[in-house]
Amino acid sequence: xxxxxxxxxxxxxxxxxxxxxxxxxxxxxxxxxxxxxxxxxxxxxxxxxxxxxxxxxxxxxxxxxxxxxxxxxxxxxxxxxxxxxxxxxxxxxxxxxxxxxxxxxxxxxxxxxxxxxxxxxxxxxxxxxxxxxxxxxxxxxxxxxxxxxxxxxxxxxxxxxxxxxxxxxxxxxxxxxxxxxxxxxxxxxxxxxxxxxxxxxxxxxxxxxxxxxxxxxxxxxxxxxxxxxxxxxxxxxxxxxxxxxxxxxxxxxxxxxxxxxxxxxxxxxxxxxxxxxxxxxxxxxxxxxxxxxxxxxxxxxxxxxxxxxxxxxxxxxxxxxxxxxxxxxxxxxxxxxxxxxxxxxxxxxxxxxxxxxxxxxxxxxxxxxx
Length: 370
Ligand SMILES: Cc1cc2nc3c(=O)[nH]c(=O)nc-3n(C[C@H](O)[C@H](O)[C@H](O)COP(=O)(O)OP(=O)(O)OC[C@H]3O[C@@H](n4cnc5c(N)ncnc54)[C@H](O)[C@@H]3O)c2cc1C
Prior knowledge:
Elements lengths: L1 E7 L3 H12 L4 E4 L7 H5 L3 E2 L10 H24 L6 E2 L2 E5 L2 H17 L4 E2 L2 H7 L5 H5 L3 E5 L3 E2 L2 H14 L3 E3 L3 E7 L2 E7 L2 E10 L5 H5 L8 E12 L8 E4 L2 E5 L4 E5 L13 H14 L8 E12 L5 E4 L6 E5 L5 H16 L17
Parallel strand pairs: 1-2, 1-12, 2-9, 5-14, 12-19
Antiparallel strand pairs: 3-8, 4-8, 5-7, 6-7, 10-11, 11-12, 13-16, 13-17, 14-15, 15-16, 18-19
The structure holds flavin-adenine dinucleotide (FAD).
């Protein structure tokens, strides 16, 4: 059988691209080398920052805003098809600053929110206490500036991935658990992929291999500039949710799930393709957790892990067709925002593959930008 679309890599970007294509009637095969969980997509915290479609003009802002809108729709659709709740929740985020540097950076963010007309509230001590009632009083009292952004959401990554995969299968998508290793070409088309020894034929081919995309593309003679960026994260288990909101201080955060699990993240490290955790980072994240709540102690710490985010040289994702081929596309390099941008990426990529008008100008994301 020749599929309309073959997707290599079933992380959140690959699964979302497949879900959109299947929903619009294409036959789709996904090739994923791991039997277990996908890499970065499973590891992430599931924070979806606020966006505003009415003010989003810049292509990156539009991608964020469209993604944001689609998450609401998809969550419902995925639940109807798969019966799995991805736990999308509008919980809001409180951003806190405890030093002059953190205040300056938060003020900068406030200017962006003002420009984008994204609602935010500067918090007084009583409001801080409402949002962070379970925080250690001493740490809470040392907050010098705090801003609450009500439009921020969270979703539960493993549940979202399960919902996507189950929905893709229910819509007729095929998943092959093998490594894409070799490719065959006919003039300017990629016509056949070998998933280990199994030949797979498709009219369109999409590489969504996360941090490994740059390596695999070398096998089709294409160079893009990518680098894995490791993120480590800790999981705690409490009897009940720690905070009703997401807490952000600088680049570190605490995300409380409704069933009492708490995520404390994360690091940003250039360590090649090594996705192990390190004692130093675990200790640093534990220090951050303990500072905010005594409930996050050794007894409640249950697990740590690391994921490799797909990074690019200029921080922008690659979304588009490879200039070298008529039928090969890539979507990767979403770094810290892959969960968030997955829905919009899937939608626009499907429009591109079908030669339709695009909801987002993809020029800044083109793979040939050097
Ligand atoms: C600690 C941490 C916290 C994060 N928090 C957030 C957050 O709060 N919000 C947010 O939006 N983003 C977050 N991110 C970023 C987000 O997780 C990533 O941007 C996103 O998951 C990238 O998805 P992907 O599908 O491109 O890559 P991946 O999830 O890595 O999927 C790529 C897949 O391709 C497969 N693959 C590779 N090579 C081959 C091959 N040759 N053949 C077959 N399969 C192959 C891999 O096995 C893998 O499953 C976080 C990331 C980390 C690590």
